Amino acid sequence: MSEQQQPGTLYVISAPSGAGKTSLVRALVESTPDIAVSVSHTTRPPREGETDGVDYHFTDVATFESMVAEGAFLEHAKVFDNYYGTSRNAALDGVSQGRDVILEIDWQGARQVRESIPQAVGIFILPPSRTVLAERLQGRGQDSAEVIQRRMEAAQAEMAHFEEFDYLVVNDDFDTALSELCSVVTARRLRGEAQRWRHASLLEELLATGP
Amino acid sequence: MSEQQQPGTLYVISAPSGAGKTSLVRALVESTPDIAVSVSHTTRPPREGETDGVDYHFTDVATFESMVAEGAFLEHAKVFDNYYGTSRNAALDGVSQGRDVILEIDWQGARQVRESIPQAVGIFILPPSRTVLAERLQGRGQDSAEVIQRRMEAAQAEMAHFEEFDYLVVNDDFDTALSELCSVVTARRLRGEAQRWRHASLLEELLATGP
Predict the structure, then answer these.
(1) What tens digit of pLDDT does each residue of A62-107 get?
(2) Known binder of ligand: residue A17?
(3) Going by DSSP bridges, is the β-strand pair A100-104/A35-37 parallel, antiparallel, or unpaired?
(4) For B85-112, how does the pLDDT look when each residue is reduced to its tens digit (9 = 90+)?
(5) What is the rounded distance in angstroms from the CA atom of residue A91 to the CA atom of residue A93?
(6) Are residues A186 and B180, on separate chains, in Cβ contact within 8 Å?
């Protein structure tokens, strides 16, 4: 028996705006080997400094719609005039090669993914208080009360779905929340079925009879 | 809704002699709040320096046997002339009060516990190689080859059951193995059903409508 490869884990990480998800996920990926964020497809034009295949897979509407028709997306949505989606290949190629892959999507995308990939692991990130959330949603103080109120309502609509996720992380202290995210990833990798593959040679050696 | 208490987790940690389980568990308990090792019952006499209720609950044979008859033990075994067992109360009082409790028992005890408490979480600790295991089983070099060989066979009989455990930790580097144990405990505490109780007030505040 040689060292073999067990599939990685697909993580779906969701949060309301203002919870600090993007910074936490970036730090998680930087501090952990063999984990990456899946690159989404979008039909919106690239912004200054964005690179195709890195920030997004930029595609035109006809291509996106034909991919939808082919069932190429694990989840997709139209936001204003633009499509966004996670292709099955972008999400699962890494997983099948033994790496962990993160999807940063909202609760609706998370629900779509769960339907296709029930073994996906959901993590929901919460802000530490309503006051902190409200501060973060104010942005640079240049927006009207009405705009900020709409952001709060959107955040609450997202948070209303926290029970659909396997793990809940409260981002009060950044380093604590990061360490908690890392613990979830580490613990998944320690599950017996993953470790049996990873340590197949060791197990064979330890259990061999004879001197 | 006030902050409420969700039950803790019952951990069953097993390992062959020479895997370093006792040191790892001691370090885990020292570095983690709200987790303790359950105190077993035994009929063997206390040794120098052992305290009743701390190292063991020391009982006589008649008491032990009547506890067995009452179903007071989650698991018990006779080793040579002495009984050892984990009482249901010792294991579950802490858990019902929201703390995590560790049972350090062998695969047979683990199997008995799993039958009564299927939600118990099993962790098996492995040595990093056969060579290291053999060295550790040699002790101080005062034992016969036959005695050492018998220890190796006992270790292998224990390790043959690693697949019955949820998590597998290889104790190569002590600090890494400790950090992995801590990750399993942390990740369990981050599960949605635990966090919903722990952060009931926060969730209520975040989801409340109105300003």
Answers:
(1) 999 999 999 999 999 998 899 999 999 989 999 999 999 999 999 9
(2) yes
(3) parallel
(4) 999 998 999 999 999 999 999 999 999 9
(5) 6
(6) yes
pLDDT band at A5 (very low <50, low <70, confident <90, very high): low
Give the pLDDT band of residue A211 (cuts 50, 70, 90).
Answer: low
Q: Is A32 exposed, middle or buried (0-12, 13-18, 19+ CB in 10 A)?
A: middle
Interface of B with A (CB under 8 A): 124, 126-130, 133, 156, 159-160, 162-163, 165-170, 179-180, 182-184, 186-188, 190-192, 195-196, 199, 202-203, 205-209
pLDDT in tens, B62-78: 999 999 999 999 999 99
Known binding residue A18? Answer is yes
Q: Give the pLDDT score at A209.
A: 85
A18: left (phi over 0), alpha (psi -120 to 50) or beta: left
- Nearest alpha-carbon partner for A194 in A36, A28, A5: A5
* DSSP state, residue B131: H
Residues of A whose CB is below 8 A from B130: 205-206, 208
CA distance B47 to A148: 68
Domains and CATH numbers, chain A: 10-38+100-207 (3.40.50.300)
Placement of tokens 């097993």 in the chain: B14
Answer for the pair A8, A100: CB distance below 8 angstroms, yes or no: yes
Residues of A in contact with B184 (CB under 8 A): 183, 186-187, 190
- Nearest beta carbon to residue B206 from set A133, A179, A180: A133
Which of A159, A166, A187 has the CB atom closest to B184's CB atom?
A: A187
Instruction: Specify the pLDDT at position A141.
Output: 77
The Cα B115–Cα B158 span in angstroms is 19
Does the annotation flag B49 for ligand binding?
no
Q: In what order do the strands lie in the sheet with B167-170?
A: B35-37, B100-104, B10-14, B121-126, B167-170
Chains A, B: CB contacts under 8 A, how many? Answer: 114
| pLDDT band per the 50, 70, 90 thresholds, residue B209 | confident
User: Is pLDDT of A6 > 90?
Assistant: no
From the CA of A22, how many Å to the nearest CA of chain B? 19
Say what the pTM is. Answer: 0.93
